[in-house]
């Protein structure tokens, strides 16, 4: 569905060249749900804008829905749907008018466009607002209207740029419900950008981590976490048993890194343990056999933030604000 | 075959070409017109404005400038076509200002991502600024009949078409100006106002340029608007001659230049 090779974008700001996207290679198959994850300014949106013909690549090539973006941008546009960061509805227009016009722009006739618009308004719970002007809608309602606009022509490939930014948790869940349902019913291929870790984690099957214009990881969220971060294990033992445990845990820990704190005659070890949920029981048994039983144990599965931290040395949670 | 499958259900992939541009223009124009249709009050105000101008400025003009300056016509017959050109000038040069709102939200970007042809975006929007002129022109012409204005319907209609072609060019330039001044809206207004008034005065819309000094007359020859005004004056007086021909030439050149610049500016950033 998408194939890029060495896709690059360079901006010139005050005579200084800034490489926003540095030769990325992306392949997306039909029916995939892919999230571009990265901090603000990482190049996610720039990449998306090149794929949707809104921005001309500086070099490299991209084929989207079987069409080259530079050779036939109009062909790409007629085959994809795009939901941008901003609100797509014109301020002074009525909701229903904008939806029908959007359908017309894609070559639908008025009857089909109206039927489709009514259907989308109903499923996005906007039907009572169809005659309202866009400026009178709330933020969440406008975002749902954006989704309706993007889905008017039932695209088989849909791009969403930061779809849930600024939405409250309820609206966000609601939005995802619609996207997921559409995917289930029509097998739509979906590519989105996000800087919400939880969103990339729970919603996407595949996460492409982008930082400083480069792809630094590309896999399922589960694989990324188990390969790159591993579970976080904390074990407490009595001070007397510490020496025996130190050796055992040190061998198991990722890169042999073992953190140790002491309080009230208890030693607390913390370590990254790839595939920890499977390894922990064996580790506990080894400790028991060595006569150094655990007093307390915590096992925390890794997050995508841990993955990002591992890859870049920075946290996405803090970095996202910069 | 593969392309066929990639095509969205229910929509056909549309072939490029002139027919496509015309069809897209129709959609863009219609979307813009929805603003007027849903809120017709704006149209009523736009009808009052030229009438006020005609009623308050027309008599002053007749009194201040001798009848011989108008080549023997009544001052109304001379001034009315100028007012029509002026409304078109104000209207179409503001094409970009309506775009500014859409640039600030995501609405312009959403439309750029649709398969609409780029030139249709320019033409459709410019035509929307021109469309009320058809009504305005007819209303002020009819309202002027009791005051000695002679109405030639077919000539007036043709005059409106010619000014419409000119308006497409000017509207496209205004659109391009809004795009290059994006994020600095005051620059748009600064440039638009700075260009508007010299163009208007040097075209002889308000006062006959023949009454001015030689250098102004020479400058006016390089102003496309001069040819528009002369053409409209000839047409509104029921004539059809060289002034009209030059007007058509100026209108077509303005449209071609405007669209070329406009499409270039749109494509400067997007594909």
Compose a concise summary of this entry.
The complex is a heterodimer of chains A (322) and B (271). Chain A is of the alpha/beta class and 322 residues long.
**Which chain pair shows the most residues in contact?**
A-B, 49 and 37 residues
Shape of chain A: elongated
Kindly state the mean pLDDT of chain B as a whole number?
A: 85
CATH fold call of the largest domain in chain A: Rossmann fold
**Low-pLDDT ranges of chain B:** 1-11
How many discrete domains of chain B?
A: 1
Q: Count every helix of chain B, treating DSSP H or I runs of 4 or more residues as helices.
A: 12
Gyration radius from CA atoms of chain B, angstroms:
20 Å
User: Strands across the major sheet of chain A, in which order?
Assistant: 7-8-9-4-10-11
> What is the helical fraction of chain A, as a range of percent?
25-40%
Which keywords apply here?
heterodimer, A: 322 residues, alpha/beta, Rossmann fold, Alpha-Beta Plaits, 2 domains, six-stranded mixed sheet, five-stranded antiparallel sheet, 12 helices, 39% helix, 28% strand, B: 271 residues, mainly alpha, globular, disordered N terminus
């Amino acid at each position: 569905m998408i194939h890029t090779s060495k896709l690059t974008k360079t901006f010139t700001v005050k005579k200084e060249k800034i490489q926003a996207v540095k030769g990325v290679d992306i392949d997306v198959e039909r029916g995939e749900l892919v999230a571009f994850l990265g901090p603000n300014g990482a190049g996610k949106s720039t990449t998306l804008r090149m794929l949707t013909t809104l921005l001309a690549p500086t070099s490299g090539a991209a084929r989207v829905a079987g069409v080259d973006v530079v050779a036939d941008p109009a062909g790409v546009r007629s085959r994809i749907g795009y939901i941008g960061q901003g609100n797509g509805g014109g301020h002074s227009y009525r909701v229903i008018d904008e939806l029908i016009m959007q359908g017309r722009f894609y070559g639908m006739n008025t009857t089909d466009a109206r039927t489709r618009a009514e259907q989308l308004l109903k499923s996005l719970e906007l039907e009572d607002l169809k005659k309202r002007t866009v400026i009178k809608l709330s933020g969440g309602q406008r975002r749902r209207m954006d989704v309706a606009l993007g889905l008017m022509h039932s695209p088989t490939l849909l791009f969403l740029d930061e779809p849930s930014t600024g939405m409250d948790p309820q609206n966000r869940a609601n939005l995802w419900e619609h996207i997921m349902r559409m995917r289930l019913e029509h097998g739509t291929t979906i590519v989105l950008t996000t800087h919400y870790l939880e969103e990339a984690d729970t919603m996407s099957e595949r996460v492409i981590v982008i930082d400083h214009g480069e792809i630094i990881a590309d896999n399922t969220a589960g694989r990324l976490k188990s390969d790159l971060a591993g579970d976080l294990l904390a074990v407490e033992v009595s001070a007397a048993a510490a020496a025996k445990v130190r050796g055992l845990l040190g061998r198991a820990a990722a890169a042999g890194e073992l953190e140790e704190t002491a309080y009230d005659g208890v030693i607390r070890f913390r370590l990254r343990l790839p595939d920890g949920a499977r390894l922990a029981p064996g580790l506990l048994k080894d400790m028991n056999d060595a006569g150094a039983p655990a007093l307390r144990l915590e096992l925390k599965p890794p997050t995508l933030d841990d993955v990002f931290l591992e890859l870049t040395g920075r946290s996405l949670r803090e970095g996202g604000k910069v | 075959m593969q392309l066929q499958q990639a095509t969205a259900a229910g929509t056909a992939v549309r072939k490029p070409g002139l027919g496509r541009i015309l069809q897209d223009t129709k959609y863009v124009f219609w979307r813009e017109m929805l603003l007027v249709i849903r809120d017709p009050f704006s149209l009523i105000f736009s009808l009052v404005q030229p009438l006020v101008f005609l009623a308050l400025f027309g008599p002053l003009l007749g009194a201040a400038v001798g009848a011989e300056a108008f080549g023997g016509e009544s001052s109304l017959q001379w001034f009315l076509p100028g007012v029509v050109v002026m409304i078109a000038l104000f209207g179409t040069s503001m094409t970009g200002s309506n775009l500014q709102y859409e640039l600030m939200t995501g609405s312009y970007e959403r439309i750029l991502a649709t398969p609409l042809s780029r030139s249709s975006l320019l033409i459709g929007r410019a035509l929307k600024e021109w469309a009320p002129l058809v009504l305005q022109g007819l209303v002020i012409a009819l309202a002027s009949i009791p005051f000695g204005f002679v109405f030639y319907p077919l000539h007036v209609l043709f005059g409106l078409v010619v000014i419409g072609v000119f308006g497409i060019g000017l509207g496209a330039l205004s659109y391009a100006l809004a795009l290059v001044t994006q994020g600095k809206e005051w620059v748009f207004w600064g440039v638009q106002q700075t260009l508007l008034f010299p163009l208007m005065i040097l075209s002889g819309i308000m006062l006959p340029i023949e009454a001015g000094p030689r250098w102004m007359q020479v400058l006016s020859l390089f102003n496309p608007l001069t040819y528009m005004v002369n053409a409209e004056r000839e047409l509104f007086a029921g004539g059809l001659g060289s002034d009209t021909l030059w007007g058509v030439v100026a209108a077509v050149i303005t449209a071609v230049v405007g669209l070329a610049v406009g499409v270039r500016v749109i494509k400067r950033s997007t594909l």
